[in-house]
Amino acid sequence: MKRSLMHLATNALMVIVAAALLEAPATATKPPSDTPVASTIDGLGVDTVPTLRIQSDQAGSYRNSSSLQSILQAAVGDWVLDTLNFNSSPQRKVLVDLRDPVPGSGPNGGAPTAPFAYQLVRARFIEQCSVYGIDMRTIPGGSTVYCPLVVAFDDAGGVRYRITMRADNFSEMQSMEDRTQRCPT
Questions:
Q1: Is residue 6 part of a domain?
Q2: Residues 118-154: pLDDT tens digits?
Q3: What is the CA angle 50-136-60, rounded to 5?
Q4: Which residue, 46, 48, 62, 175, is the most exposed by fewest CB within 10 angstroms?
Q5: Is 72 contained in some domain?
């Protein structure tokens, strides 16, 4: 009798496990998707005072569409604005202004050489708050956090450049703060 009950319990457990395994794919949820956002970059052109080094193209907010990506990533909550990897029309751009170089930031500590003074370019931004364990979707309104920012862009000749604003990439600049991210209230 004891053996029959043990056999019955084992069979019942196997049936429950098999049912759960068969049901799991049917009830599995879809993976989370990216959150579309409207991104606003300040700037009124090359004569903006004070000079802003990265500015908008003055065509309004950048909204997620077939011609650009403006999202918070589902997996980690980082912000992405990408006009670089889209070829559809209309093509949005950003103004990159390199007229005020940092002395000694060129090769071997020499004078920097910029590829252009300023130019409207297609670019890709990624704000990497997740590097510091911060999910942008959970930052309370009105808070200030410091997050790394990487901007990649192509010049008019198609040469790819990258601007990295992340203090821990440059040991000589550990006191430098990353780009400040302020969440609106």
A1: no
A2: 999 999 999 999 998 999 999 998 998 889 999 999 9
A3: 45
A4: 175
A5: yes
